[in-house]
Amino acid sequence: MDTLPAPLIVVRRALARWWSDWISLALVNVLWGAAWFTLILGPPATFGAFASINRVAHDQSATLGEFFAGARRYFLISYVWLALNVIMIGAMVAGFLFYTQLQALWAFLPLGISLLIGCLWIATQLYALPYLIEQDDRRLLVALRNGLFTILASPGYMVVITGVAAAVAVVSAVMVAPLFLGGLSLIALLASCAVADRIQAFRLRRGDAPSERQ
Predict the structure, then answer these.
(1) What are the extents of the domains in the chain?
(2) Which residues contact 33 (CB under 8 A, 6 or more apart)?
(3) What SS3 class is residue 4?
C-alpha cells in the first residue's frame, strides 16, 4: 500500500504520465503557446489543450485530433471564460491599487481579503477546465463551482497541487526551454490528474458538485 500522501501520489502519477507521453504533450504545448501569440486563438487553444491532456490523465495518449476537436467544441465558451477572467483580474488589480494607496491601517484588511479572493479565483481556474472536460454538464459556471468546492473541500490537498503547479510555472517562466518543452502541459496534466482523483475520492456523479465533507 502506498504510504505517500494523496496529493504527492497525484504529483508522481502526473510526472510519470507526462514523461511517458512527453513527445505528444510537447506538440500540444507548442501549439498551445503559439496560439496565444495570436491572442484571438489563445482561449479555444487552451480548452483544446486541456481536452487533449485530459486523455493522458486517464492513461491514454494526447492527440492533436482531440486538441483541435476540443478547441472547436469549446470555442464559444472559451471566450466567455476569457471575459470572466478579464473582468475578475481587472477588478483585483483596481482593488489592489486602490487599497495600497490608502494610508489608513484598516485598509490592510480589505487588501488582504482582495488578495485571498484573487488567489482563490486563479486556483479555481486551474481545476475548472478539467471539470468542464470531465462533467456531462457543459456549463462553465458548473465547472467553476466544482473547482471552487473542490478547493474548499480539500484545502491541504489543493495547496500542494497548486503549489507544485506554481513552481512549474515559475521554472518555465525563468527558463524558456521548459516552457516550450512541456511546462504548460505538465501544469494542465497535474490539474487534470487532481480532478480525476478528487472525482473518485468524492464519488461524484459527473456534473455534480462535491460535498464539503470527505
Answers:
(1) 6-202
(2) 179, 180, 184
(3) coil
Q: Which residue spans within the chain are E strands per DSSP?
A: none
Phi first, then psi: give them for residue 56, nearest 5 degrees.
Answer: -65, -35
Q: How many CA atoms lie within 13 A of 30 on its CB side?
A: 8
200, three cell numbers: 473518485
pLDDT of the residue at 205: 45
User: Which residues does the chain have with pLDDT short of 70?
Assistant: 1-2, 176-180, 204-214
CA 120, CA 114: separation in Å to the nearest integer?
10
- Cβ atoms of 195 and 128 within 8 Å: the answer is no
Task: Locate 113 and state its grid cell.
Answer: 481579503
The one-letter amino acid code at 47 reads F
Q: Are 167 and 186 in contact (CB under 8 A)?
A: no
